[in-house]
Design brief:
RNA-binding; single chain; five-stranded mixed β-sheet; alpha+beta; eight-stranded mixed β-sheet; globular
RNA sequence: CGGGGCGUGGCGCAGCCUGGUAGCGCAUCUGCUUUGGGAGCAGAGGGUCGCGUGUUCGAAUCACGCCGCCCCGACCA
């Protein structure tokens, strides 16, 4: 584990040096050899690379998702898509390009996204003065925007598709890429182009739309916890953190191993703003023409960044079995000798028999790794990639009808790698249970970290400041594990809220959300001293 | 866009101050020996030193301009 200790107050005061110094020392050779003092962001980038998940692309701020990383995304897609369909939604595909005028219709939406959009202005290139450049005579009459999100173009379709209350609710989802011209980017966590799903729905009234908003928030919460083994806190964003054009924005927030919060998914109730901007109307059973209430909700490839920062350790990535592209990898111990053939045959049969088993409702995903490299190196490659179970088979196993395996969630016993020997048939029968156990173990570790690192005893700004430390721009200070603080507030808005957020910002803090589960009575507001009406989470964040 | 730093084989770096035909570790390839917990030895391949201009007999090294990347701000899933 990286930065956490399981209980007591140690995690609030103890800096991470012990964890940082040993971080990556064994497994991630590049860092070890560079002589640089590892820190969490550096650890993260190293894991992304060493686990073969993704790499930076020649295009600024964009990444290449490699097969192992994309395999994780495919699992996420498959499982989440099932849940989205189970809740009554259908998939569509809308265009990448959006006419500029569509975006311009909703004022807040414009304001929120104007600064980060990629714009297409020409439709042809031309060689001028020996340079290939946009042809001045091929200028588009109306610029096209590369979608940063699709509310406007889907809303436009809704305005044609919806006529009657019988057309409602309209429940649409799409899997797509979107582009936001972010200033600072990091692999998976924030890239200029990213993959996501975006749900867009229209409803007859506010109640139905709010029901949808919260239903999908719950889908995200359960998906994150059950499938990604990443515990989250679901809650409502403060007024200033709302999606541009939304009436209410909800999020799930996960705690990373450096104590920072990661917004892992959002669900928005958009009121009738987009319906009014785009004329999405229906006739009710009384014959009245009314505006629809719409919602939108999404999760992205950022989830993969969350998985890495939730479960990774000093040996690299640890993948929850539910999303591991290969749940069990068999490494044959080949030595360039005649008995290799027996080992391979044994391995093929083992793989085939394991594939007959099911876990998480699907056949086991098993790989016999026959690549022609040293067995020891092969094993560590799979450790770094986070394959949940790594089996080694050699002549001794073949002779004894046994397998030797390692659990990635409990790789080491002290400094030694821990392996278990089991009869072949028994292992096959046990494999589904083992995978479920690993999934549960990863969740439990992360859940313990989350639950034991939310402080509830901070009641004044002075204490908040003392806890998180003054903002000096000092890197080491920022890297220290702090966790989150849960406080009561009086939910001020407008200028007062802005001032509060500015004060928090000076401490590199932000309001993450107001958790859905609230107590029955409240302490006084930490900011205003007025009676509290709600509890909120405050943290450093990604 | 402001402030700071950095661009040298795939990766991580040295060399620059004090100009003289480019070096180290890891990785890669070949061979031999090894192999049940990240192998050893020997050899080999691979570099427009970010780009351009200038100074100079000679530029990775000095000067000027440009480009790109990283960190800190502003922005954000």
């Amino acid at each position: 584990m990286l930065l956490t200790k399981s209980d007591s107050e140690e995690q609030f005061t103890g800096p991470l040096e012990a964890g940082l110094e040993t971080c990556m020392q064994r497994a991630l050779s590049v860092l070890r050899e560079s002589g640089n003092r590892p820190n969490f962001p550096e650890w993260y980038q190293t894991v992304v690379r060493e686990a073969d998940m993704a790499e930076p692309s020649p295009v600024r701020g964009s990444m290449i998702i490699k097969p192992w990383g994309y395999g994780v995304w495919e699992q996420i897609q498959k499982i989440l898509d099932g849940r989205i369909k189970d809740t009554g939604h259908e998939n569509c595909y809308f265009p990448l390009f959006i006419p500029l005028s569509f975006i311009a219709k909703e004022a807040q939406h414009v304001e929120g996204f104007a600064k980060e959009m990629a714009v297409v202005t020409h439709h042809r290139l031309k060689m001028i003065d020996g340079k290939l450049q946009p042809d001045p005579t091929a200028k588009l009459e109306e610029p096209l925007v590369v979608r940063p999100t699709s509310e406007t173009i889907i809303g436009d379709a809704f305005s044609r598709w919806i006529r009657s209350h019988r057309d409602l609710p309209m429940l649409i989802n799409q899997w797509a890429n979107v582009v936001r011209w972010e200033m600072r980017t990091r692999l998976f966590l924030r890239t200029a182009e990213f993959l996501w799903q975006e749900g867009h729905t229209a409803h007859a009234d506010a109640e139905d739309a709010m029901g949808e908003t919260l239903k999908m928030l719950e889908v995200y919460r359960s998906f994150s916890e059950e499938t990604l083994a990443m515990p989250v806190i679901a809650g409502e964003k403060s007024a200033n953190e709302r999606f541009p054009g939304a009436d209410k924005t909800y999020s799930i927030e996960a705690m990373m191993q450096d104590g920072k919060a990661l917004q892992a998914g959002t669900s928005h109730y958009l009121g009738t703003h987009f319906a009014e901007a785009q004329n999405i109307r229906f006739q009710n059973d009384a014959g009245e023409l009314l505006f629809c209430h719409t919602t939108s909700w999404g999760v992205s490839t950022r989830l993969i960044g969350g998985v890495i920062m939730s479960h990774g350790d000093d040996d690299g990535l640890r993948l929850p079995p539910a999303i591991a592209p290969r749940q069990i990898v068999i490494v044959p111990m080949l030595r360039g000798k005649p008995e290799d053939a027996d080992v391979l045959t044994f391995g093929e049969k083992l793989a085939a028999d394991l594939r007959q088993q099911t876990a998480f409702g699907e056949r086991l995903r098993v790989l016999l790794d026959t690549k022609d490299i040293r067995s020891a190196e092969k094993r560590w490659n799979w450790v770094r990639r986070g394959a949940p179970i790594i089996i080694e088979i050699g002549p001794r196993d073949v002779a004894g009808g046994a397998v030797t395996f390692m659990r990635r969630d409990a790789l080491r016993d002290g400094d030694k790698v821990k392996s278990t020997n089991a009869p072949r048939d028994q292992f096959i029968a046990d494999a589904p249970r083992l995978l479920a156990e690993i999934q549960g173990q990863l969740f439990t570790e992360a859940k313990t970290r989350l639950d034991s690192n939310i402080r509830r005893d901070v009641t004044t700004m002075a204490e908040l400041e003392a806890f998180f430390g003054a903002s000096t721009g000092d890197d080491d200070e920022a890297a220290e594990f702090k966790g989150w603080v849960r406080v009561a507030w009086s939910r001020p808005d407008g200028h007062e809220l802005q001032q509060i957020e500015n004060a928090l910002k000076a401490l590199k803090l932000s309001i993450r959300n107001a958790p859905l589960d609230q107590p029955s009575n409240y302490a006084n507001c930490i900011f205003t001293g007025a009676p509290g009406v709600e509890e909120i989470l405050i943290a450093r964040s990604y």
